[in-house]
Design brief:
The chain is mainly alpha-helical. The chain is built from seven helices and no strands. Helix content is 72%, strand content 0%.
């Protein structure tokens, strides 16, 4: 992923850091969950190393953070919804789950 300018790489690093902080995770815990060493991840988050395809894939699998957001800063409506759900209390998440369950039971 070497086609990005240094400025773009720094923006990607800032989006990674922001995404990690939104999850309330330390560098150590975040890197563990995505299968990377803390020092290796920290180099990416600081902009010294580029974002790899493997890193993007692991972040998507673990946290559903869009590669388009990390690389380009583009968010889709579903990304915003997921972010907002993550910020909800467990009680609100349960209410949402029950609402969606009812919706799908009636629909199908």
């Amino acid at each position: 992923m070497e086609d990005f300018t240094q400025e773009e790489k720094m923006q990607q690093a800032m989006r990674l850091k922001h995404s990690r902080q939104l999850k309330g995770l330390s560098i150590e815990k975040f890197s563990e969950l995505i299968g990377m060493s803390p020092s290796g991840y920290q180099k990416v988050e600081c902009g010294r190393n580029s974002v790899s395809r493997k890193l993007l894939k692991n972040i998507w699998k673990q946290f559903r953070i869009s590669p388009d957001y990390i690389l380009l800063g583009e968010r889709f409506e579903i990304d915003e919804i997921i972010i907002n759900i993550d910020r909800c209390t467990d009680e609100d998440k349960m209410i949402l789950f029950l609402y969606l369950h009812q919706y799908f039971v009636r629909k199908f």
